Amino acid sequence: MKLMINIITAFLLVFSVQACNLISAAGFSSHGQPIKKIDSQLASALPNTQIVDHSQWDQLLKQHVQPNGLVDYQGFSANLPQLEAYLKMLSKQNPNQDWSVQELLAYYINLYNAATIRLIVENYPVNSIKDIDSPWTKGRVAIGDKMLSLGGIENGILRKMNEPRIHFAINCASVSCPKLLNEAYTASKINEQLNTVTKEFIDSTENEISENSARLSTIFDWYKNDFKVNGKTDVIGYINQFSDIKIKPNANISFKNYNWKLNSSN
């Protein structure tokens, strides 16, 4: 009996360590990165206050991302040195609490999207990002001397900033994901850009909305606690702020299957 207890204890200890490692890698901490929580409505920063120059990323996006969000990964592959140069430039920045919340949002959203593109290009051709080993939990993104995972940027930083529209700005390289915007996010346009991508996604075919029923993207199920109205979780109320069709409070809600196929234009 004592031997059995010792075996179970050892198993639980190993499982606990592995779970902690997974949680750390997946990014349920900020890894020391600055986080500013948005407590009121976000407004874009004043023009000419930008700290980081995202124009190199903007040029690549305009060149290789279609208006419908499909991505020319072969084109990005041909421009991999420019993509690497942009990511290296971001790595040398030192995000800190002196940065505005708008600057931080633009920085981490662009970093996430650019690093995701690089991950796909490094493994191309690939049918799905899920075919890649540990796409969101492995440390792949350098900020200074630290290596963050994509999950770390999303869960440890962006989600903690209390801005649920980030879910429609970061792109997971998949068909069912909100489309990749073909311009870089900037502090001076961040509120308008987040409004645009949120409304476009909610009104897209990824959601089938009527007054009495709605088949929604699984994003609204996975992250339902992020979507709040007046401080309370309210997915329907949140969607109604952007949707052309308003869903009734007692509507029948279900969720669509997520298509993880690569969002490639090739």
Can you walk me through this structure?
- The chain is mostly helical and 266 residues long.
- The protein has one domain.
- It contains 9 helices and 7 strands; from the N terminus they run H-H-H-H-H-E-E-H-H-E-E-H-E-E-H-E.
- The strands form 3 sheets. It has a 3-stranded mixed beta sheet with strand order 3-4-7.
- Helix 5 (101-123) packs antiparallel against helix 6 (150-158).
- The protein is globular.
- Residues 1-27 have low confidence and may be disordered.
Main attributes of the structure:
single chain; mainly alpha; two-stranded antiparallel ribbon; 41% helix; 8% strand
Q: Short summary of the structure?
A:
This protein has 266 residues and is mainly α. It contains 9 helices and 7 strands; from the N terminus they run H-H-H-H-H-E-E-H-H-E-E-H-E-E-H-E. The chain has one domain.
Helix content: 40-55%
- Poorly predicted regions are 1-27
Q: In what range is the share of β-strand residues?
A: 5-15%
Q: How many strands in all? A: 7
Average residue-wise pLDDT:
90
Quick one: overall form?
A: globular
Estimated structural class: mainly alpha
The H/E string reads HHHHHEEHHEEHEEHE
> How widely separated are the two ends?
61 Å
How many domains? The number is 1
Order of strands across the widest beta sheet?
A: 3-4-7
Oligomer: single chain
Question: With helices defined by DSSP (H or I, 4 residues minimum), what is the helix count?
Answer: 9
Specify Rg, calculated over alpha carbons: 20 Å
**Main sheet, how many strands, which sense, barrel?**
3 strands, mixed
